[in-house]
């Protein structure tokens, strides 16, 4: 008598957008190939311009995976930004579950298996699950975050009291994207916040209280142009005004304060001190700036005048992580 075959586990699509980070892409891909969950498709979306050196470097890395049938390598002619690359991956994905992995992060071997197992036990109104994560810089773990919160966390996200660390964390049901659509390609930042807030209009989220992701900060020392950052903030708030307008006054003031503080930091990092003071005063006008927030601003101010910032960030990283405005 033939043994009964085990039913095949649902397909999971892992979408890896990559841009100017060929040196870390291999680590990301290999972390997916090592997963204990086997029914995977890995979609690498190359968002480098076709005639750039970064395209050539990425193509050289991808040659190592030519003989692996479940790796799909897609190339954009021109850079479309992170949202565009994720959307390309979504269009080609066939999985019942979908997750994203930034090209400089890595996932632990049991991450996808534990996330799929968790989602399959939950009711359909849970659209995604997320895990704990480490923040890593210079080979050193600066902080570890274990999640606890579940449900509709729209207010907590807008207040920056809750987050998932990066776009590499969540595992979604495919029905989420069928319901809410894809990433907003007009947003240059806050794309992850946008997709999660839209998800919360129809679905909830559930935590897995284990660290299953390393988020590397070494290649993320980018300082956004503060004026462009302000435009993104305005667009983001205008887009979600129907949600924000329904919040109570205390929540609203807390939200406006923390985002004004984030803008003040952006101007401070660009040495635009007049605008820094302006946005700091705006933040104070909404709600009291507490001791932790003031200390964080002071550290940013000190670091802006110091050389060799990367070494300093590695040494003082744990302190900065505890003080930073965006809590996870």
Describe the structure.
With 328 residues, the chain is of the alpha/beta class. The protein contains 13 helices and 9 strands. It has helices at residues 22-33, 53-62, 81-92, 111-121, 154-158, 174-180, 191-200, 226-239, 241-244, 249-269, 273-286, 291-303, 309-323; strands spanning 12-18, 40-46, 71-75, 97-100, 106-107, 126-137, 140-145, 171-173, 204-216. Strands 1, 2, 3, 4, 5, 6, 7, 8 and 9 form a 9-stranded mixed beta sheet that branches. α1 (22-33) links the parallel β1 (12-18) and β2. α1 (22-33) runs parallel beside α2 (53-62), α8 runs antiparallel to α10 (249-269) and α12 packs antiparallel against α13. It is globular and about 65 Å long. The mean pLDDT is 91.
Layout of strands and helices, then pairs:
Layout lengths: L11 E7 L3 H12 L6 E7 L6 H10 L8 E5 L5 H12 L4 E4 L5 E2 L3 H11 L4 E12 L2 E6 L8 H5 L12 E3 H7 L10 H10 L3 E13 L9 H14 L1 H4 L4 H21 L3 H14 L4 H13 L5 H15 L5
Parallel strand pairs: 1-2, 1-4, 2-3, 6-9
Antiparallel strand pairs: 4-8, 5-9, 6-7, 6-8
Brief summary of the model shown:
The protein is of the alpha/beta class.
The amount of helix comes to 40-55%
Number of E-state strands? 9
Oligomer: single chain
Distance between the termini: 53 Å
How confident overall, as mean pLDDT?
Answer: 91
What series of H and E elements makes up the topology? EHEHEHEEHEEHEHHEHHHHHH
- Round the Cα radius of gyration to an integer and report it: 20 Å
As residue ranges, the low-confidence spans are none
In terms of DSSP E residues, the strand content is: 15-25%
Number of helices: 13
Largest sheet: 9 strands, mixed
Form type? globular
The helix/strand class is alpha/beta
């Amino acid at each position: 008598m033939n043994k009964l075959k085990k039913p095949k586990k649902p397909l999971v699509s892992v979408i890896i957008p990559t841009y100017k980070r060929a040196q870390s892409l291999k680590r990301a891909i290999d972390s997916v190939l090592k997963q204990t969950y086997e029914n995977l498709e890995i979609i690498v979306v190359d968002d480098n311009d076709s005639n750039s050196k970064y395209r050539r470097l990425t193509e050289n890395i991808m040659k190592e995976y030519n003989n692996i049938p479940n790796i799909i390598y897609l190339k954009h002619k021109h850079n479309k930004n992170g949202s565009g690359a994720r959307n390309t991956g979504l269009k080609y994905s066939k999985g019942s579950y979908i997750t994203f992995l930034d090209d400089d992060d890595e996932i632990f071997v049991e991450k996808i298996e534990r996330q799929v197992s968790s989602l399959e036990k939950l009711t359909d109104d849970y659209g995604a699950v997320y895990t704990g994560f480490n923040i890593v810089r210079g080979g050193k773990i600066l902080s570890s975050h274990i999640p606890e919160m579940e449900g509709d966390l729209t207010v907590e996200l807008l207040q920056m009291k809750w987050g998932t660390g990066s776009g590499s964390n969540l595992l979604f049901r495919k029905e989420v994207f069928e319901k809410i659509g894809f990433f907003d390609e007009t947003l240059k930042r806050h794309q992850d916040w946008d997709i999660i807030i839209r998800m919360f209009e129809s679905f909830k989220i559930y935590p897995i209280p284990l660290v299953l992701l390393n988020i590397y900060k070494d290649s993320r020392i980018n300082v956004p142009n503060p004026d462009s950052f302000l435009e993104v903030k305005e667009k983001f708030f205008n887009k979600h005004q129907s949600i924000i307008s329904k919040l109570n006054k205390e929540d609203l003031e807390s939200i406006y304060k923390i985002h004004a503080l984030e803008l003040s930091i952006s101007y401070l990092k660009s040495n635009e001190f007049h605008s820094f003071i302006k946005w700091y005063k705006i933040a104070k006008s909404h709600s009291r700036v507490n001791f932790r927030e003031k200390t964080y601003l002071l550290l940013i101010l000190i670091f802006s005048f110091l050389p060799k910032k990367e070494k300093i960030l590695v040494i003082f990283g744990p302190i900065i992580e505890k003080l930073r405005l965006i809590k996870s």
